Amino acid sequence: MALKTEPFVLNIGPVHPSTHGVFRMRATMDGEVVLDIEPVFGYLHRGIEKLAEQRTYGGFIPLTDRLDYIASMSNNFAYVTAVEKLAGIKVPERAEYLRVIMAELQRIAAFLIAVGAFLNDCGAFFTPFIYMFREREKIVDLFEMVSGQRLTYNYMRVGGVSQDIPDEFLPALRKFLDKMPGYIDEYDRLLMQNEILLARSKGIGILTREKAINCSISGPVLRASGVEWDIRKADPYSIYDRFEFDIPTGTVGDCYDRYRVRIAEMRQSLRILEQAVAQLPSGPIRSDVPHLVRPPVGEAYTHIEAPKGELGFYLVSDNSIAPYRCHIRPPSLINLTALREMVRGWKIADAIVIFGSIDITVGEIDR
Amino acid sequence: MTRTLSGKDIAGQLEEKFPGSIVESNQAHLIVKSEVLPDTLRFLKETAGLDFNYLNHITAVDYYQYFEVVYQLSSLEHNHTTVVKARCYDRENPSLPSVIGIWQGADFQEREIYDLMGINFTGHPNMKRIFLWEDFQGHPLRKDYL
Amino acid sequence: MKFERYGIGIAKGMTVTIKHLFRPSTVSQYPEQRLNTSRRIRGNELIWSEEKCTGCGTCAKTCPQGAIEIVTSTNLVENKYRVEKYEVDTGYCIQCALCVEACPFQALFLSYQYECATYRRDELIQGKEAMLETPERPVSGYFYPERAAKLPKQTLLIEKVVEKR
Amino acid sequence: MAIIDFVINSRVPMQALPPDWPGGFWWHWLFFTVVIIGFVLTMVMGFIYIERRGMGYMQSRLGPNRTGPFGLLQPVADALKVLLKENIVPTTADKLVHWLAPIVAFAPALMIFAVIPFQDKALLADLNIGILYIVAISSVSTVGVFMAGWGSSSKYSLLGAMRNVAAVVSYEIPLVLAVVGVVMIAGSMSLNQIVLAQNIPFILLQPLGCLLFFVAGCAEINRSPFDLMEADSEIVAGFHTEYSGMKFAMFYLVEYAEALAISAIITTLFLGGWRGPLLPPILWFVLKVVIVFFVMVWTRTTLPRVRIDQLMALAWKFLLPLALINLVITAIQVLIWPTALPWILVPVNFAIMVVLILIWSKFFKLGLGRIEV
Question: Is the pLDDT of residue B63 over 80?
């Protein structure tokens, strides 16, 4: 005689140790197995797109920090490139290099959190998380040195960056670049070949290439599915065409591939940083931009390769000092499109791991 | 470098297949009639040589007289991109056909536009508010929302 | 857990953690051990120079949060503005320092302090007197490199930890 | 003193009763009850300190160091804090079950120590079925855990409790089979006799058995990497999600008391118990227990968590066959050398362990764990 069972609904979040903020999933479960999942957003909705319409072009930069708050520099970068494209502003050479240095440092810092949180979701009790936070602190120290803050940097400006780097920045960065490969090797030794981690992440949550493209997935998640698509290479913004680096891709598109791609991208970012530091020219750091930018009537869409994926800003100008419409293409939100397909049929423990491997920030989802 | 296909070139191809579907086309974008929007977008996705298989983003802009919905399309194979727009003039009850059958990535973005701009995407299986709560009044990103 | 590698991966990870047992820890004990913050730290307070300020109000216009309130009256004799009221609600302030960058007369700075928590919200509002530079309220070097040079050097974690890996 | 005669000569003979003990059995009973409770509580405090500090250092931080010298009083502060907290019972909870669960879970953890020798013949009751007693008692706390999961009327709690029951039922088997090898070599089920029989510590003669026992023991008491019942990244805190205050403290205590119990059993069965040169026996005992516990802390710091189906697969496909093979090999060895196993077997058994694990790793396969829905 078969037991009569019925599925039950489990609310994972908004307050849950591994939903990375105030994200909520409504999971329909059959025992341990997730039958269906529905993401519920909006617990951190602040209406940033509406706020942008009430601020000047320059005054919106501090608010972009609050989107993906663990990769603020990338948000600044995406926004200022959009304004510069809209207004046709040229950026001095040195500022471009400084922006690239900051963006790549920020990428490493964001991946450190992404990987650490992913391993923590796998159940490694905070050890990788704390090791990776230790290295992130070193990057954050550098950011603090140039911008004065540790989380919301607000460093880039329309037409350049806010200030030149201090004298002690480059030696410290040099030291960091020398040490970081050793730290990454240490992470590899810690868990990369761990049998339990392999069992927990290999073959779990496979996202096929076709599905990934169809769902508009971007960033490391797309590359883990075997698509060699990196906006830095495909559509080089700023000065990324001057650097030599590879695009690490996965083969299967499972959680382990996503983890591996992030680790490999950290090494590539270090390569870019080495080149950028070697080529760093001297000169002005900010072009002559009026205090209140008035771009001509028109619209512009720019996208950059943020740590989470394709971060785009769609700006519409009506020749006033504030954007008429500012739309943010949030990689975190769009990457979650495939979550339901990836999670269905797996156990709840896998659901958490798959969710962690996508790497979201709720500030960017809800905006 | 990603090539931007001009709206005019694509408009020519579209006009052959769907006569009278193009409202306006220029260097930067093309605007199609909202009734034939899914057909034209499917054509753009599936025609060899265009292959717009990647939907970068969807957004909507409120121009008081009409809402403009912007589709930014890319092709990962050919590395080119274009912008397709559609307009809906009904301010009380704007609606557009959904493209979720063509690109699944439109799912949350269409819901977001519905939530914040109030454009109803017909054919979307789960058309409800995404960020705000269910009985919220109004659509905040509209220009007349205060 | 397919043990293709016979547990070598596990053993490698265990060596990493046991090595850390004998290494100095990277944390510092905050209230007793204070690391020097950045010379450009954007502290919680604004510092204002009454002599230099002309009352143009650029700072208030730039502020994305609208945290600065400035009221001026015209001094016809000297042909300039007189600042009647200058108030910052640091509860609204997000320390973006756009006002500091915008000030055309170098009259506005951020403070070097970062421990400005209070028990009441109305204590967060800084009036004119509470914004003047004093020895207890030092000025950060943000946007003013010559002031930054006088401040102590920032402690960097990358220089603090010396162990070999 | 008829009653004492009756107790002594009853069906469970108290062999270790010291004949010269003043007052006889009852004094012995009282003394050891107090000693066990004191021992467990102090050791649990020590364990909490060791776990938090050791883990802190391994994670490149310091761990608690504010309360008392070197943070030694941290467990006391924790206990005080938790006792002063509000005691919340969910409105839909099964109140009686919710209240009883921590007690049901705590009592067996304490009872295990009745048969553990702190030094020669210094134990509450030297049962000649000591091992059987341990195996029986140690599973009882699962009932408490399940009561907690059921009584809280929370889905997270229920999931955690179900996982715990499944794990304990499965892991009991390799656990017992690993012990049987030791029993065969020692020729007795009394823990005191087993310790006395260890002229060579049994970890050397039974390396595979020790490994199996350690793994199965970790799974039984929810230590990482088998801590699925309170997997904080998945099901918040498992069965004690809805507990607070004193009752939560009880569960916390149970967790460490069980860890202490398993460490003590491993010490007794495999590491030679209280035996050792120079130092007094009780110190040797405590030292070995702490070392075993430290290994648990170490694995917890390093390893990720397994999934529930992998947990089951590990028990039934890996540990159980290996335990059976180990049992057969031990039986043959005991048949050949009936009185005492010679030293030569130490390298032989280690070699057997390595070969067995290598071969079995080849056979061991896991399912993917996905169900089509």
Answer: yes
